[in-house]
Amino acid sequence: MSTALTACVLAIGSLVIWGGPPLHAGTQQDSTTRSAARQPVDTNDGMSHEDAQTVLRRYCVTCHNANLQTAGLSLDAMDIARVGDHAETWEKVVRKLRTGTMPPVGRPRPDRTIYTALASMLETSLDRAIAMTPSAGRTTVHRLNRREYANAVHELLALDVNPDTLLPPDNSDLGFDNMADILSVSPALLDRYIFAARKISRLAIGDPTIEPTTEVYTVPKMRFQDHRMSEDLPFGSRGGTAIRHDFPLDAEYEITIRLRRQLYDYVRGLQNEQQLEIRVDGERITMFTVGGAPGTPPPRTFAGAVLGDREWEEYALHADDHLKVRVPVSAGPQVVGVSFIQARSERDGVAQPRATGKVLAIAERWSSTSEAPEAAVDQVSISGPFNAVGPGNTPSRERLFSCHPARGTEAELCAREILATLARRAFRRPVTPADIATLLPFYEAGHEAGGFETGIQRSLESILVDPEFLFRIEREPDSPTAATYRIGNLELASRLSFFLWSSIPDDELLDLAERGVLSTPETLRRQVRRMLADRRAR
Prior knowledge:
Helix content is about 40%, strand content about 15%. It has 18 helices and ten strands.
């Protein structure tokens, strides 16, 4: 079993068995961490406390006493019958006994059976002590990292966003970027969250005042485009790329293609005439002709000199200038496909072996003319919206607007319903009247400025910067009766969803948590299986 899989199984096990928080790193020493995972052992220790005390006095206390305190350790004042009072110190003693490093070489030593019996007795006593007084530690406030933030926005609004363009990179430690202790918050980061909330809320609502922007999608340089590149592209296509793009409004959008170039900025693969087509959700929008260059291309040389026809050089530098089209597109997520029509013939003559892999990469890098017989797509840019006609019917609007007020008097009731649904899922808990009272002023200000949908957009913006959305906060009971306690069902729902999905709980998980049945063993086991089978567990 791999290390990662083992960690997953142990973490799920801690939730199922204990129904409470796993031990928090840094709140307990090694003895607590090791012992808390073991049940109390009812067995014959093999050595009495009196015998153990005698062994310690003979072999250990001579150096580790109140007078000498060798290595800062004093054992003469500690009662071996109460190891739980000094668990950290006794754990150090166990490690020295198990490794046989104490007493040091040259000092009197017990035989191996005494080593083993004393260590076993101490381990069993430590296990019993921690089982009687467990301490699970406390969780810290945990900010959502970029991936969790994007996933949460998708689950909340059915909207895919690129967190890399909205938020700065997260700190990481030992390869992990979801550790609470390193996910700090700065004033600059808060500014980015405010910017992201404003942009996301306007995209989700379909704000008609959105200014045109340009999204650039780049095809990786080392991806060879000599076959069908995606299941979203038609059969018989070659190269190119398929892009899932969210169009914010029913409007016109400009799609621009930049072809791949070689070292001296000539468009590569112009010897043969090729057909490049653009599709939106599978429907062909337009088709361009690329290649079949006029004039005589320059000779292949590594010197960089261009000795060919000037007309060919002008064409090779600007062969993709005409690859743009403006087209009306409906709002919502659409697949933009850009690909060449696969050629099904070869030029006459003796068949020549074609360079592949590193050979082709090196040839494309150093040659002063195009070495590849076929063109390739480098970038696809999508600009807009232009001449918008409305917000359209997008998945985000379908999820947001559970009601549509027919008259002005119904607007506030509808707004309360929408905000309650949003806040429940965003905050991962039942909504209180105080939550709605906090959100309504944002709605009222937006409604006065631009109508009902603007009011919802302003409220949504405030939810996306609310600490209860951006942070995972586990509150202690108002009056805990013990140092440890079982976490609540709502906290358990969030732990499960962020552990298995890196996202917020869905409605089924929240419903079970609100009913207080999620922590029952059978329900918890069933939910873990369901969540692991879900696509979000990938």
